[in-house]
Amino acid sequence: MKVVYLTRKAEFSASHYYHNPAFSLEENQRIFGKCNNPNGHGHNYTLEVTVKGEVDQRSGFVVDLKDLKETMNREVLDAMDHRFLNKEVPEFKTAIPTTENLAIAIWKRLEGKLKVARLHRVRVHETTDLFVDVYGD
Amino acid sequence: MKAHLTRRYWFAASHRLHSEVMSEEENRRTYGKCNNPYGHGHNYALEVTVSGSVDPATGMVCDLVALDRFVETNILEKFGHANLNALAEFRGAVPTTENICTLVYDVLEKGFRPASVEKVRLEETMLNAFEYAGERGLRI
Fold first, then answer.
1. What is the distance in angstroms between the Cα of A14 and the nearest Cα belonging to chain B?
2. Residue B54 has what DSSP assignment?
3. Contact present, B49 and B121 (Cβ < 8 Å)
4. What's the mean pLDDT in B85-94?
5. ipTM of the assembly?
6. In a mutagenesis test of the B interface, which of A47, A49, A56, A59 is the best target, namely the one with the most B β-carbons within 10 Å?
7. Domains delineated in chain B
8. Mind telling me which PANTHER family this protein's record contains (chain B) (predicted)?
9. pTM of the model
10. Could A8 and B30 be called an inter-chain contact, meaning their C-beta atoms sit closer than 8 Å?
């Protein structure tokens, strides 16, 4: 059977700041620099979700793109788009909303929610020059 | 030392997603807008990744002109500005991007000799892309 990988992109905008309460103010400043500004700052994130699966013989589809889009909207974008990640997204009450942690949180939100295909990779671009990949291991 | 080379191509084609084994109602439910009887088109972006040892004499994995010529003759001339449903390649298969992607890979894998074919990536729109790397799957 032919395994095909399908990637769907979406964009969302959110604000965040980096601060670890276990560090001193000076340490936070030194480690996180401008990102430590407590009033936050924002990015236009691009999310790429890659799923893998066998091509269904009858439909020629790996996954229904509409289902995937709806799952991404429901599980990720509705919760994160135009939000202050530190204050409004539960995962970041404790974890620092770095792009790494954001990709892990999105993986956990999507994992198990796909009806047919399997999640292969979550890629989050914070800017056009920086992105993080998570494969769930 | 082995290196991977990716070349990007474009073709515009039309298709209609409609399966002979489904009822009219099931076709409409499964394919939605893509089942419109008159078809619709896309600008497909095709990325072909090949790999091989870098030839010490040329510094190249393979001659790009040879890859371009192969893709031009075997893919772009056939699929470009064509109705995919009307092609012999899609007789009995629905021209979803999944099926186009695996077909392009198989054509390259069978016919292109100067380098190993690693992967075919096909973008149907700015928001979705499909990748096929044969039996072994994507390594990352």
1. 20
2. P
3. yes
4. 94
5. 0.74
6. A59
7. 2-132 (3.30.479.10)
8. 6-PYRUVOYL TETRAHYDROBIOPTERIN SYNTHASE, PYRUVOYL TETRAHYDROBIOPTERIN SYNTHASE
9. 0.83
10. no
